[in-house]
Every structure is written in structure tokens, then in C-alpha cells.
């Protein structure tokens, strides 16, 4: 234990970088290591998915294609089954499938040995995973929630109905008004919670791998290997969590609003026309 503490206390401890660093500047715009690597991964993702999509046939194939098909099927079923009306779910499958693979590939690409602390120039990593940058995860979270808000408003039938679903009863009731305002405030924090959850899991994984690689010295590949394998699972899990939360945010709003409308319609249909007529006459009288 003493030797371990001494190791951590050494001046040349593990090099850990959480904030993005500038690799170069173009037209006065700083290009950070996470931006550069994110672009590389995005290009490879687009080219790879187009190539694999052309290989997909009715008869299943082996190799990477079968994993792509399995991933697409998994996310598609996840999205469609979240909605009471399956037709609504199918409309948003392309967005959430793209989101899943984007987050997943960026998480896994950050585990390549030359990424992060493995390859440095001028004291900072040349490449860092895009999802290890809070700016990126916040941007992904904001885009996801904007899509959720726009889709929710469109599916429930307007901005007024969307706002109305936050309130349990009449907004003129002080208690219902307070609960509704709290629900709206909570809803606005979802983009930040998505961003922080993804960023912290990726960044902490980088730090843990860097620390144990440093402690291993010449045996760094062996000491860091268990945590690298663990991060593969964490990266896949975080992609799944990011997507399932986005899907549920949209589905809960749509399902609850449609269920309320259906209940109102059923209640109206149960009242006999004669009874309604009597009530109207009574009011007129």
C-alpha cells in the first residue's frame, strides 16, 4: 500500500486531460482534439454504414453485417414498442437508430490505444473521443430534446395541448399550477442530464484506464486491459441509455395525451343523445 501511495505521489504521475485541447486553428476557429477525432469517426461511420447497408439482403449474412442488422432491429423494436400507436413510433426510428450508432461508435472509438493519452503532441492528446467532451454531449442532448419537443408538439396536436399535459388538473388551481411548473422546469433540465451522464461515464473511464496504465509501467497493456473491456460494455450501455431516455421522453408525452383524448371521447360516447338533449333543454329553460 505504501508503494502504491508513493507511486501516486510521484511528480510524473498519470497524464489526464479532461478539457479539450486545440490541435490547430482554421480561419480563427480553434479545432480541438475531440472535434477532429469526432469528424474522423463521423466520416468512417457514414462510409461504413452506407457500405454495410448495400450488403444487407433478405437472406442474413455473416460478419459485421449481421451485427449491424441486429443493432438496427434492436433499436427499431425499442422505438416502435414504446408507443401505443406503432405508426407514430416508426416515423422516428431513423433518428434514434442514427443517434444510437453515433454515440456507440464514438464511445468505442475512444478506446483505441492511439486515442487519448496514448498519442500526445505538445503535452496534450491529438485525439480524444467526441463523447468525452462536455461541449459535444451537451450539443447532442440539446439536439435530441429539440427533436423530442418538436415531435411532441406535432403529435399531440399543437403547442397548447403540449403545455396542457404538464398539468394534472386546472392550472387555475394553485396546487396543480405549482406541480405543472415544477414538471416544466424538470423537463427543461433533461438535455443537461443526458449530456452530463454520457460525458461523465466516458471521461471517468478514460481516467481509470490512464491511471492503471500508468501504474502498470511496462505491463500497462495488461493492467489496463480489464478496464478497457469494462468500458466497451459501458460505452454500449450509455448509447442504449441515451436513446431509451430520448424515446421515453417522447413516448410518454404522446401516449399520455392520446390516452386522455381517448378517455374523453369514450366518456362522450357513453352519454345517450337523449340525455344530452334533456340537459341542453334544461339549461335553456
Question: Terminal Cα separation, in Å?
Answer: 91 Å
The strand count comes to 4
Tell the overall outline: globular
Q: How large, in whole angstroms, is the Cα Rg?
A: 26 Å
Query: Can you list the strand order of the major beta sheet?
Result: 1-2
* Helix and strand element order: HEEHHHHEEHHHHHH
- Summing up helix and strand content along with how strands pair, one would put the structural category as mainly alpha
Whole-number total of structural domains: 1
Unreliable sequence segments: 1-11, 263-268, 273-285
Q: What is the number of helical segments per DSSP (H or I, 4+ residues)?
A: 11
* Beta-strand percentage range: under 5%
Compute the average pLDDT.
Answer: 80
Helix content: over 70%
Largest sheet: 2 strands, antiparallel
SSE topology:
Layout: H1 2-9, E1 22-26, E2 29-32, H2 33-55, H3 64-81, H4 86-91, H5 93-109, E3 120-121, E4 124-125, H6 134-156, H7 159-164, H8 174-188, H9 190-216, H10 220-270, H11 273-284
Antiparallel strand pairs: 1-2, 3-4
Helix pairs in contact: 2-5, 3-5, 5-10, 6-9, 6-10, 9-10
How does this structure look, described?
The structure is a single chain. By secondary structure, this protein is mainly α. It has one domain (30-265). It has helices at 2-9, 33-55, 64-81, 86-91, 93-109, 134-156, 159-164, 174-188, 190-216, 220-270, 273-284; strands spanning 22-26, 29-32, 120-121, 124-125. It has a two-stranded antiparallel sheet. It has a two-stranded antiparallel ribbon with strand order 3-4. A hairpin with a 2-residue loop joins strand 1 (22-26) and strand 2 (29-32). Helix 2 (33-55) crosses helix 5 (93-109) and helix 3 (64-81) packs across helix 5.
